[in-house]
Input
Amino acid sequence: MTDYIKISNERLCGCYQGYLSCIEARDWMKNQIGVWEFTYEPRDVRDKSIHPAVFPISMAKRVIEQFTHRGELVLDPFVGSGTTLLAAQDLERNAIGFDLKKEYVDLSNERISVPPEGHPCKQLAICDDARSISKKIAPKTVKLAFTSPPYANILNRKRKNKSRRGDLRLNEQFGKIEQYSQDPRDLGTLSVDDFEKAISEIFYAMKPVFMQKAHILINITDAWIDGKREPLHINIVNAMRNAGYEFRNTIIWDRRNIVNRIGIFGWPSNYITMGTTFEYILDFILPAPDEKAR
Ligand SMILES: C[S@@+](CC[C@H](N)C(=O)[O-])C[C@H]1O[C@@H](n2cnc3c(N)ncnc32)[C@H](O)[C@@H]1O
Output
């Protein structure tokens, strides 16, 4: 018999069964606008030597509120510093995160170690490959997966800080490789083609854990790798469709409020948009086998 992680996914709210989440109409309307902006708060991990690529707690909260009820189970297959878990704890959702690197799992578990008194839900990080998820989580229990996988191998090279101006280019990150690990299972070591294949395989194997009409949201950006534009959001859409998911929505994470003192690219002959000014949040669902998704 499989020993699944013991964690509840029971709703704690009185919402109607068919409602997607506990969200109020006013917030639903705000979320219909496909461009979202966030600010970081003091609890966010901003030190890149602790973790090089975190998303804001406010982003995870907005996604969790849009797609889950209180008490439901949230999964982050690439949990990093535990941002999704912290957001889930704030919002009284159960949550499980996976990461290959023990240091990040310890950090995640430490960040969620003091839940508010009387907190009704559990959050935990597990040190394991995302490929093992369906062996660890009971079938049909997860309502939402929200994650940001490694962006293929864009961090696995010496930083050139090309978007920085003047002396800022030569900051403490310059010339360093900020990749999570060199473990061959780490998606951050893979070329774009292998990355697409790995995402597809991982999410295909994960399918059993999702409840009917669960949403899966993936944060990703496009990149320049070895002088070539790599539209990673297209790789993600292809990977997920090949794994049997239906692509539903694109949300743009407008990052202009957190990008400052940028350098000039390409002027006056080579037009290039700055990748740091926006990222994608791609929304997928798993259609029920006997029902075409609406
Ligand atoms: C972009 S980071 C996630 C950051 C996270 N959203 C946060 O806010 O801290 C991607 C994470 O995926 C992890 N990772 C890479 N390959 C993995 C795999 N095969 N299974 C589980 N985790 C993996 C890396 O260690 C890294 O922490």
In short: The first strand starts at residue 35 and ends at 37. The pocket of S-adenosylmethionine is lined by residues 51, 53-55, 78, 80-81, 83, 98-101, 104, 129-130, 148-150, 180, 185-188 (CB under 6 Å). The chain has seven helices and ten strands. The helical segments are 25-32, 57-67, 83-90, 102-111, 133-136, 192-206, 232-242.
